[in-house]
Amino acid sequence: MAMVIRVFLLLLLSFYSIPSSAIYEDQVGLMDWHQKYIGKVNQAVFHTQKAGRKRVVVSTEENVIASLDLRRGDIFWRHVLGSGDVIDELDIGFGKYVFTLSSGGSILRAWNLPDGQMVWESYLQGSTPSKSILFIPTNLKYGKDNIILVFGMGSLHAVSSIDGEVLWRKDLAIESLEIKQVLQPHDGDIVYAIGFVGSQFVTYEINARSGEILKRTSETFPSGFSGELSYVSNDMLVALDTTGSTIISIRFGDGQISFYKTAVSDLVENFSGTASIVPSKLTGMVALKLNSVVVFVRVTDSGELELVEKIDSPAAISDPLSVSEGQQAFAVVQNGESRIIITVKQANDWSGGNLLKETIVMDQQRGNVEKVFINSYIRTDRSYGFRALIVMEDHSLLLLQQGEIVWSRDDGLASIIDMTTSELPVEKEGVSVAKVEHSLFEWLKGHLLKLKGTLMLATPEDIVAIQGMRLKSSQKSKMTRDHNGFRKLLIVLTRAGKIFALHTGDGRVVWSLLLPSFKRSDACPNPTGLNLYQWQVPHHHALDENPSVLVVGSCGGPNAPGVLSFVDSYTGKELDSSTLGHSIDHIIPLPVTDSTEQRLHLLLDREGHAFLYPRTPEALKLCQAELPNIYWYLIEADKDIIRGHTLRKTCTFEGADEYCFDTRELWSIVFPSESEKIIATAKRNLNEVVHTQAKVVEHDAMFKYLSKNMLFVATVSPKGAGEIGSATPEESSLVVYLIDTITGRILHRVSHHAAQGPVHAVFSENWVIYHYFNLRAHRYEMSVIEIYDQSRAENKDIWKLILGKHDLSSPISSYSRPEVMVKSQSYYFTHSVKTMAVSSTAKGITSKQILIGTIGDQVLALDKRFLDPRRTLNPTPAEREEGLIPLSDALPIIPQSFVTHSLLVEGLRGIVTIPTKLESTSLVFSYGVDLFFTRIAPSRIYDSLTEDFSYALLLLTIVALVAAIFVTWVMSEKKELREKWR
């Protein structure tokens, strides 16, 4: 009896145990991959002294500061700052520190150059936002301390390089002064702060040691100034007037200011339009951009200008580099077809010839060169050589040296804005997927290593060998479909307008395409990608057809024309593209496909017209048949209004065709702006599969309210719309709504007093889970709302449900007022959240997991059973049998539930889940500055064997069992024969 009780308790414990996602150490890298990036480089500073590693320190648009190995491009160290902590300036000072100025010039940090550890951080005070300037003077000390000058927030600061202490501060944000430059024309204690006040040119002469303003000088230029200032010599600057057609040479030495005007048309023939100054620090020279032409203009000591060279093709210019005493060099990179030309010139002696000129073959899929940074080195013959770090249009980073590409980084993958998936082609007949062991010795060695790993006796070298063997023997990197549906293509769209296809097996780039239709042109000056959609998904039997995706973009601005591009999912070739005659404000994929399996889409412009694509008679006929069933909603978050729309009729404006439809507003919900502001919305995935409509609760059936037209909306009071802590508990409240988007009916409303955003939510089946901050408890909370359909009371008999005698075939209309029942519950949660997602499987049978992107840039898998609104302190036996977990005030954080293990997905922005053919398994792709991919099994793997299952050992076991059966049978026969002879 005791044994029976013990077995029963063991089974009961296993029944209530929560599945975890923990893996063994030697399994990391088999089912997941992790890739690190830095983003598009904005600034770069080389550090190539003889002592120490040769490196380049960069800052990027993703607010990343990193130190890269110059030999291979690997990351020595990296720091990802917050999304609002934009890096304004970067420099290396005193041979051992990296200085960064960020957040509009309000935060100055010093980092240790070798290892990237932060030495100090200084918060700078100021009154008004302004341009940020970081200036490290030469030989300027305050006692034994070096001084760093920082202009930010309208004030000039002198900061100690040892501990970041602010030595003095001068507020220059008076009379709307706009400081453009901080200069040290001569070695000494005097620095100049130079800027504009309207049409006045102003200079401040300041003692850098004490902060005393020695002199203020100003002079008025009637035409005013525009753009930036270019510093060309100790007492000479160059600017442009407000029209951009006149160059102004400004002399400011000796306490006097004088102007010299030169028309751009006098220097460049046939000039028309507006000029702009190319940011550079060339001594005695200024570079101007005139449309697509770049010209170099020399500035004489008397302020006169003369044209030196004109470059007709698009070009990038580097900052000057001192190569010897009194000599400067800079690089000009010109773009050509399938190649670039890099020229290094002497800034001081233009007629002395080029220091370097090389032509390098370049992949067209990288686009044009946007930025270039150069560094010099000494060759064996004691001459100067040059290396160039270039940033391409697709945000990739390359190092060029001696006419070759030394290394490259695809850092455009750090700025993914949208993604979709594509199935791989079916494997052709005659191709075997099985692999045979090479020899008996290798087979025994491999299984011995696996046994050591299982018993946790493996050394680090053994673990590496086990991982190598598994990666070598796995089929995960093949370019064909597998029977479990694990191998797919992740097709991602980046901010640069480039598409990458990543293989889920190992994360490699299968193909990439910088969309030609998204390149800058006169018709489309500022193209940007918006969204990525599945366009054509042929049936798997139609092997002669490849799937394709639709990329929707804009030429920049809300009223700019839209751009469409159609790309083959297997080859990465652009099949077709077009620039539309209307803007794109919203895209609606319709659940309808034509005979070629192209999905219909409606593109809405800002005037409220809907355009049908593809523009074919068949698509038009299908759309007209579905016209009464097409509804959508638009959220005007700035006005706190939600409007529901439907199609009305063919457009009537001039130039419209039969593929254009007018829209009609059906309903609107206007939230009172004085009390509520929309901060978050969530909706169900339209492709989500629900296994059953009913949920059995205490031997009774509750039917889920499974409308795909439900919308979750969260609003907060205006005072609570800021950051956490910006409002008191009495001033802030959170209100959430469940809204039917067909009728605009509010199905449910709940208010959370003393709550504040940000709010993150996921909507799946008949439930929504959302995360917010409780001001009164000073803790984060997560709440769950489940909604059930009460209109099917006659179908609640559980026996009718089992026997299939219930009636669920009656149509359900959103216009019939639903009878719903809502259950809700709230729990404390210890983590701040960046994003949320929910696991998805092919049939919807497997239990759900909530995937939470934490503030620590990790992904946590939380079982949905923890967020069941029916949890109580003392569950009944029936509820325990159902699997209900006893109620607790906080949600548990199990360390083994982090699907990212010990890895970080820096700058985490999104999590996407993808179902597989295996019902137990879901694929998870999370992206930010880094990428991470893995598989999860919310209910454990119950429908397949694991990848490390030893089929050879199983075969040996079967053979041994058969042999044992035969031996025991022979022995039994002999024994029986002996018994008969007795």
UniProtKB/TrEMBL annotation:
Q: Does the keyword ATP-binding apply?
A: no
User: Domain named EMC1 first beta-propeller: which ranges?
Assistant: 22-411
From what superkingdom does this record's organism come?
A: Eukaryota
Residues spanning the signal sequence: 1-22
Among SMART domains, the record links this protein to: PQQ
Q: Name one Pfam family in it.
A: EMC1_C
rRNA processing recorded as keyword:
no
Report any one BP term from Gene Ontology: protein folding in endoplasmic reticulum
Q: What keywords tag this UniProt record?
A: Endoplasmic reticulum, Glycoprotein, Membrane, Signal, Transmembrane, Transmembrane helix
Q: Where is the ER membrane protein complex subunit 1 C-terminal domain?
A: 764-981
Q: Where are the transmembrane segments?
A: 949-972
Subcellular localization is given as:
Endoplasmic reticulum membrane
Which membrane topology term applies here?
Single-pass type I membrane protein
Query: Would you identify the family this protein belongs to, as annotated?
Result: Belongs to the EMC1 family.
What name does the UniProt record give this protein? ER membrane protein complex subunit 1
